[in-house]
Amino acid sequence: MSKHGTIKRYTLIIEKINRKQFPSFKTIKDYLFAHGFEISARTVQRDIEQIRYEFGIEIEYDRYENGYFINYDTSINIESFFRFLEIASTAELLTEGLAESKDTLKHILFEGIGNLKGIDNLKPLFQAIKNKRIITFTHLNFNTGKTKNYSLKPYFIT
User: Fold this and answer.
1) What is the pLDDT of residues 59-93, one digit of tens each?
2) Lower Cβ count inside 10 Å, N or C end of the chain?
3) What's the domain range around 154?
4) Closest Cα partner for 7 from 45, 56, 42, 50?
């Protein structure tokens, strides 16, 4: 399986544990299956172990609740892990877009300089382009303190 597939499984496992209080092992496995991952129980166990080992996210089983939870107190850099999953998910979305159509690159222009400030906006913008959706937002002018509403149809990212 590709690294994208593995990261997607990690994301789904974390998502399920965060959304539902104490999901059972079967619930997690069924959730993965519903998202296109027909994998063995051992693979799910390995994924949970790898999330612990590689990222320091403590996924634990609560016998009283009969399900899994994330122990935020003992997990290391959990916010960094969530940021990593967000970036990996964005990369996967871009890869899918390129696989679907080489024309995707017509809609994206990468600058050669600068940092990744604002990258968290890339995924929803790319999804809006892909789904031909209108984006609305409010801009605050820090000099005047006035706000202005905008609606736009994105078709190109610079």
Assistant:
1) 999 999 999 999 988 888 777 777 777 777 777 77
2) C
3) 101-158
4) 50
